[in-house]
Design a protein that fits this description.
The protein is mainly beta and 625 residues long. Helices cover 7% and strands 32% of the residues. The strands form 6 sheets. Strands 9, 10, 11, 12, 14, 17, 18 and 20 form an 8-stranded mixed beta sheet that branches. Strands 23, 24, 26, 28, 29, 30 and 32 form a 7-stranded mixed beta sheet that branches. Strands 13, 15, 16, 19, 21 and 22 form a 6-stranded mixed beta sheet that branches. The protein is globular, with a radius of gyration of 23 Å. It binds copper (II) ion. The site of copper (II) ion (CU) has 5 residues, from loops. Residues 542, 599, 601, 604, 609 line the site of copper (II) ion.
Length: 625
């Protein structure tokens, strides 16, 4: 190991000790802290004991680590169960099997509402175990006690296919001893699947749930993922949905109310890739989009098509993963991890690759460039998706901005760089968890090339004659993917103000309750709406995420969004930048039930910038829910 111990200052250690005592005594709720006089009148944590994140957050520095000594890990592809549903014990049921240990509370709508078209017995079946595991994140740091799906961090990648419903049995085998943070109660969200509410991973649907006797000792939860195009049960029943609503790069993560930041920081997240006949993971397939990808089977890794989960983390003086329980502003790591490894390298061939990049949080925004470090040259690349959706056509871009939970698939052509070394460089200037610095007209302040954080190193081989059957966008400027779907007249326009009140994050003045049982507004099933989102919190940015269906951004701060913009697309996360008022078009089709909209800075989300909407037959007309 490079360095065993890296000393903190006496002040840092004292602050850390004061915090750890409160954590050990389980005195971290707002009410406990008020009773002890550790909160100010304005609700801020007192700084003199090192409790306030403002005093503490910038101070502790992780031990040094060497960059580009560890290879990029690529997550395994999750394998379906041979024998399907029959291989599960107990056999899966449409109604929740609480007596058999299931934590679900509502029946599977896919099989109740659409039972004439879909049968549980036909689902592709997976079983995954959420477990603690000892993992390496750097050759220069000790092993970490992380939480992962099947014990891997990030979790295994799911391959899903349109028209093939999936059933995932999530088993919760997490330990009660959390090593300082995290809670062994989970609700796994598929971000942003067109998923019925009971399988969405709604924040209040965690298990086991000690407050609900029926599931107080539940050990598993069956999630039903239809993998159907939105509108299959309403606006586009004859074609089984609208092909223009196809999704590609999704991810899953824990969403337990008030603990999402801790549980995902500990590792509970992974990729979920959706394929169809066009976006098929096979660059040789006739009639397909010919995006980079060579595959040997449905559940084998796709060569040249690589998911990259970007997360930033901080480690204590002993090199152990550090989560500041008293920070509600937003946590920034000083180590940059890709697929769970600090600053890894990847050996690539001089050909085209597809990278599916995800900002895995908890709070950092990225401005990513492809940099030749020797000359500090910016190398343009192609952006082909915005979040889970292919753009109408590929766009050649100099860089990429991502806020938490946003994704972008990019295509890099390494042909001209044989034998060279390139870097994925984050040049966003973000000194704290609030969001990037304000920079008029730009998403944030950008540091010069070569002075940012080198996140990932590409070592391009000098192999000649490497086969590449993927389409070259440079030589084929007329490549198109899907058209943007029709936009019917909205039934209602609603307005949401994202604000800070005292030390709490609120939407329209309301904080999401830990019970998750307040319905803030109701949406009529199979309707569309316009939402205006206002940032009333000065100096802060918020990645706004709405579950269930993608939206179209209509305007950003008054300016309409048109062709040529990477936001001229469907999306599921909207970057709400400093002082902005943005509007978006929403649809809610095919299923009913509860869903959240929330800030995806996971610290804001947990404290408690989130609202619940329920989709039902009537809906309400609240303009300011
Ligand atoms: Cu926020």
């Amino acid at each position: 190991m490079y360095l065993l111990k890296h000393r903190w200052s006496a002040l840092t250690r004292n602050a850390w000790r004061n915090r750890q005592e409160l954590v050990a005594a389980r005195l971290t709720t707002r009410r406990d802290l008020l009773k002890l006089g550790l909160l100010t009148g304005a609700g801020m944590l007192i700084g003199k004991h090192g409790l306030s994140s403002r005093v503490f957050a910038a101070d502790p520095v992780s031990p040094p680590t060497r960059a580009f000594v560890d290879p990029l890990p690529v997550m395994p592809v999750k394998q379906p169960l041979v024998g399907g549903a029959a291989a599960l014990v107990p056999y899966p049921t449409i109604a929740p099997n609480n007596a058999g240990g299931e934590g679900r509370t509502r029946p599977h709508q896919l099989y109740t509402t659409y039972g004439s078209r879909f049968r549980l017995a036909d689902a592709k079946v997976f079983e995954v175990r959420q477990q603690e595991a000892l993992k390496s994140v750097s050759s220069d740091l000790p092993l970490q006690r992380l939480w992962g799906f099947d014990g891997t961090v990030p979790g295994p990648t799911y391959h899903a296919y349109y028209g093939q419903p999936i059933l995932v049995r999530n088993r919760n085998e997490l330990p009660a001893d959390n090593g300082g943070f995290g809670i062994n109660q989970v609700s796994t969200h598929l971000h942003n699947g067109h998923t019925p509410s009971e399988s969405d991973g709604f924040p209040g649907d965690y298990f086991p749930n000690p407050q609900n006797p029926a599931i107080a000792s539940a050990s598993f939860y069956d999630h039903s993922y239809p993998n159907l195009l939105a509108g299959f049960g309403s606006t586009h029943t004859t074609q089984n949905g609208d092909i223009n609503e196809s999704l590609s790069t999704l991810w899953y993560h824990d969403h337990r109310v008030a603990f999402t930041a801790q549980n995902t920081y500990k590792g509970l997240a992974g990729f979920y890739l959706l394929f169809n006949q066009y976006d098929c993971g096979d660059e040789t397939r006739a009639g397909g989009f010919r995006l980079p990808g060579v595959r040997t089977g449905d559940y084998e890794p796709v060569k040249y098509d690589i998911p990259l989960m970007l997360t930033d983390r901080r480690f204590d003086e002993y090199g152990q993963l550090f989560f500041d329980l008293f920070n509600t502003d937003g946590i920034l790591g000083d180590k940059f991890l890709v697929n769970g490894m600090v600053q890894p390298y990847l050996e690539v061939e001089p050909r085209r690759y597809r990278f599916r990049i995800l900002d895995g949080g908890p709070s950092r925004f990225y401005h990513l460039f492809l940099t030749d470090q020797g000359s500090n040259t910016e190398i343009p690349f192609w952006q082909i998706t915005s979040d889970g959706n292919l753009l109408p056509k590929p766009l050649k871009v100099p860089s990429l901005v991502l806020s938490v939970a946003e994704r972008a698939d990019i295509v890099i052509d390494f042909r001209a760089f044989a034998g060279q070394t390139l870097y994925l460089e984050n040049r966003m200037f973000q000194p704290d968890g609030r969001g990037p610095y304000f920079n008029a007209g730009l998403p944030g302040a950008t540091v010069p090339a070569g002075q940012g954080d080198f996140v990932l190193q590409f070592r391009v081989s000098d192999n000649t004659g490497v086969r590449d059957d993927s389409v070259d966008f440079e030589a084929n400027p007329n490549v198109q993917f899907y058209a943007l779907p029709a936009r019917p007249l909205p039934r209602i326009t609603r307005t949401f103000h994202f604000e800070r009140e005292l030390d709490t994050w609120v939407v329209n003045g309301k904080a999401f309750p830990d019970s998750a049982d307040v319905v803030h507004f109701r949406i009529r099933k199979n309707s569309s709406e316009q939402w205006n989102i206002q940032n009333n919190s000065g100096g802060w940015m918020h990645p706004i995420h709405v579950h269930f269906e993608e939206f179209r951004m209509l305007t950003r701060n008054g300016a309409s969004i048109g062709p040529g913009s990477v936001e001229y697309s469907r999306k599921d996360v909207m970057r709400l930048q400093h002082g902005e008022l943005n509007s978006m078009f929403m649809r809610f089709r095919d299923f009913e039930g509860r869903y959240p909209l929330h800030c995806h800075n996971t610290l804001h989300e947990d404290h408690a910038m989130m609202m619940r909407f329920d989709i039902d037959a009537t809906g309400d007309l609240l303009k300011n829910p």
